[in-house]
Amino acid sequence: MAGKPKLHHFNGRGRMESIRWLLAAAGVEFEEGLFETREEFEKLIQGGTLMYEQVPMVEINGMNLVETRAILRYLAAKYDLYGRNLQEQAWIDIYVEGLKDLSDMIMFFPLSLPGEKKMNLEDILERATTRFFPVYEKALRDHGQDFLVGDQLSWADIQLPEVNLMAEEGKPSVLAGFPLLQEFKARIATIPTVCKFLQPGSQRKPPLDEGSIETVMNIFKFERGMFLKNMGTI
Amino acid sequence: MAAKPKLHYPNGRGRMESVRWVLAAAGVEFDEEFLETKEQLQKLQDGNHLLFQQVPMVEIDGMKLVQTRSILHYIADKHHLFGKDLKERTLIDMYVEGTLDLLELIIMHPFLKPDDQQKEVVNMAQKAIIRYFPVFEKVLRDHGQRFLVGNQLSLADVILLQTILALEEKIPNILSAFPHLQEFTVKISNIPTIKKFLEPGSKKKPPPDDIYVRTVYNIFMP
């Protein structure tokens, strides 16, 4: 019998968090190999299992999968979270790509230069409430079903509440103008597998605090001010 | 008969170029509506044609597809450029994502400050030679086939060729240590649909110049 998938990453959310959400929602138990220092990361690189010397990496079904999107798409296809046909798949892709644009901004926010933190947070919240959330609110309203796409749970339905929760950590009232998003988030949270993942003691990771920011910066040799450096609207 | 796909983007490479490559490789004719002014972008946004107010956008099969990767996947899937099963598809996906990470450096390059541009060419070359090319060189060497995955043309081959040619424009000898990639470049370039795309008069766009950069700033900067 195949072993459980094993996730290789640092001990924090980063790009692996979406993968944790998807596996948890699909009811798939997984293990984690979490490194805490540059040395441990380099040891993993030297082991030769990281195709581009980067994480996330997920060992699953005899493969060492890398590249967040490739991993997520594999899991979505494998666990029947990718729609019933090519058109539904396209819409799921579009919705998750939009969410990734927003979640990337949120993810890099802790690396802001101190003087730019306030401005960056305002930028994120403005983008969230004017460019992204209205799209999903409208999608839910127009589609009129329990899910974003088609008539069954998909990857997009898992990713949306994940990003809403992250945004709320930046500003608790950020969903104030979006009643359908609020209702959707609450409803997805009642799915038993998701509910379990949201309880304390699950493998869900907390947001970065100042101490863990320093750890992450040391492991990956990030610099402050990387935030928004290459995030164009082009 | 189905209408041709219609691409909405400025008249230059940017993020739409990969889409042009894949459509061309698949032998699909397409139309283009070039964005030249802020007013045109506004019109598309106000008309609710752009889901996230952004381009690329491709009108195809009754949908207005946005988000580059969604567009690339849809076309690849439709035209059998995504492997024969989930395992092949996932390999193709990993190769494409890595290549797109490298291509991203090329796409952003013209928009860097002039002082940073030369440094970035060095960075691109290093990333290509140390991180990405060795992966694909090994894949080709190990299985000895013409294509990266499953012995047939896929999205991975097309995007890799696009990226190699774009890098060669800036660093002509970038493939000097990679004999299998050199051979790959020649073989994939000679596939009839791709060969046609590489000839003058095709919809392939020239390297970005100052006019393109200025147009993009005019359209997208507030």
Instruction: Kindly identify the CATH topology of the largest domain in chain B.
Output: Glutathione S-transferase Yfyf (Class Pi), Chain A, domain 2
CATH class of the largest domain in chain B: Mainly Alpha
CATH topology of the largest domain in chain A: Glutaredoxin
Unreliable runs of chain A: none
Helix fraction bin of chain A: 40-55%
Q: Report the sheet with the most strands of chain A, covering strand number, pairing sense and barrel closure.
A: 4 strands, mixed
**Largest beta sheet: strand ordering of chain B:** 2-1-3-4
What is the average of the pLDDT values of chain A?
93
Oligomer: heterodimer
Relative strand content of chain A: 5-15%
Structure description:
Chain A is an alpha+beta fold and 234 residues long. Chain A folds into 2 domains: 6-79 and 198-230, Glutaredoxin; 86-191, Up-down Bundle (Glutathione S-transferase Yfyf (Class Pi), Chain A, domain 2). Chain A is built from 9 helices and 4 strands. Chain A has helices at residues 17-25, 38-46, 68-78, 86-108, 117-143, 155-170, 179-188, 192-198, 210-220, and strands at residues 6-10, 31-35, 57-60, 63-66. In chain A, strands 2-1-3-4 form a 4-stranded mixed sheet. In chain A, helix 1 crosses helix 6 (155-170) and helix 4 packs antiparallel against helix 5. The longest helix of chain A has 27 residues, at 117-143. The model of chain A has no long low-confidence stretch (mean pLDDT 93). Chain B has 222 residues and is an alpha+beta fold. Chain B folds into 2 domains: 4-77 and 196-209, Glutaredoxin, CATH 3.40.30; 84-190, Glutathione S-transferase Yfyf (Class Pi), Chain A, domain 2 (Up-down Bundle), CATH 1.20.1050. Helix content of chain B is 57%, strand content 8%. A 4-stranded mixed sheet of chain B has the order 2-1-3-4. In chain B, strand 1 (6-10), helix 1 and strand 2 (31-35) form a beta-alpha-beta unit. The longest helix of chain B is centred in the middle third of the chain and has 30 residues, at 114-143. Chain B is globular and about 50 Å long. Chain B starts with 5 loop residues before the first strand and ends with a helix. The model of chain B has no long low-confidence stretch (mean pLDDT 96). The A-B interface holds A 51-53, 63, 65-70, 73-74, 77-78, 86-87, 89-90, 93-94, 97-98, 101, 131-132, 135, 230, 232-234 and B 14-15, 51-54, 61, 63, 65-67, 69-70, 73-74, 77-78, 86-87, 89-90, 93-94, 96-98, 101, 104, 107-108, 111, 131-132, 135, 216, 220.
